[in-house]
Amino acid sequence: MHFVQAKGILSSANGMNIYRGCMHGCIYCDSRSKCYQINHAFEDIEVKENALELLEKALKSKRNKVLVATGAMSDPYIPLEEKLRMTRRALQIIEKYGHGACILTKSDRVLQDIDILQRINNKTKCVVQMTLTTYDDELCKKLEPNVCVTSQRVKALIKLHEAKIPTIVWLDPILPFINDAYENIQGLVRYCAKAKVYGIICFGMGLTLREGNREYFYQQLDKLFPMMKARYEKTFGLRYEAYSLQNDKLMRSFHQLCHAYGIISDINELFSYLRTMETKPANVQLSLFD
Question: How far is C-alpha 221 from the geometric centre of its chain's CA atoms?
């Protein structure tokens, strides 16, 4: 961990990253890509020590209420948050000035702030997004070794729903030859139905591989799945997008399952919901499995 003085904290779209780098150790992490210019060891977390002062100044001066989003680049609930609680204090500032919050994480540590999230949602709008990739917890431990397994994340989603906080799941990435199976997609969508999520975002059954994250990913494949690296290199070469050979079939199944369970899967509709302060309820469909 090391501290830096940041020049700003909110992007033009009101995105916020208090931390840079991550401790979760996910083997596929796109944030390792060199294009993001993280010029330090990825696990040596960069902490913007003046982030809270910058955030308060920025939110105090806004005329209209905005939805502050965090987690797109670095998970706000890495283990370091247990000690620093900077995400929690940022949420307190967001609540203080009457703005909304939109969080993306794959950690059930989000529950430690459920009290603030609930208050924000009661006043304006709060959405928690959770990344799910792997139905099988044992496989999840290999792919995402330093964060809670999928079943624990689903329990967190259920508790958030019980607190009337809307949730969205990112089903991403799906790794070719590893978890690109119908049973995995079916299990994950059923989990989402159980947790009564608002919707599921899925761009396709695959992952991105850029300079920086490709090398790390292949190193992990060598450790965890012998001969898998050669299979990737033969199939995808140096392509940026590595889609499952079953992508079209799996995407059809994904949308059919979502429709059957009454879960929104239209990306445009979900992003529209995430980008505005509008708090309309989900268009709930009747599930064929009720």
Answer: 22
Indicate the DSSP class of residue 175: -
Give the DSSP H/E element, type plus range, for residue 249. helix 247-261
pTM of full prediction above 0.85: yes
For residue 128, the SS3 value is: strand
Sign of torsion, CA 149 152 156 161?
A: positive
Phi and psi, residue 20, nearest 5°: -130, 130
Per-residue DSSP letter, 281 = P
Cis? peptide before 173, omega within 30° of 0: yes
Strands 206-208 and 199-201: unpaired
Contact 157, 129 (CB under 8 A): no
Residue 139 neighbours by CB distance under 10 Å: 18
At 250, the amino acid letter reads L
- Token pair of 26, please? 């996910």
> How many angstroms separate the CA atoms of 211 and 208, rounded?
10
pLDDT digits (tens, 9 = 90+) for 7-53: 999 999 999 999 999 999 999 999 999 999 999 999 999 999 999 99
Question: Which residues pair with residue 207 across a beta bridge?
Answer: 242
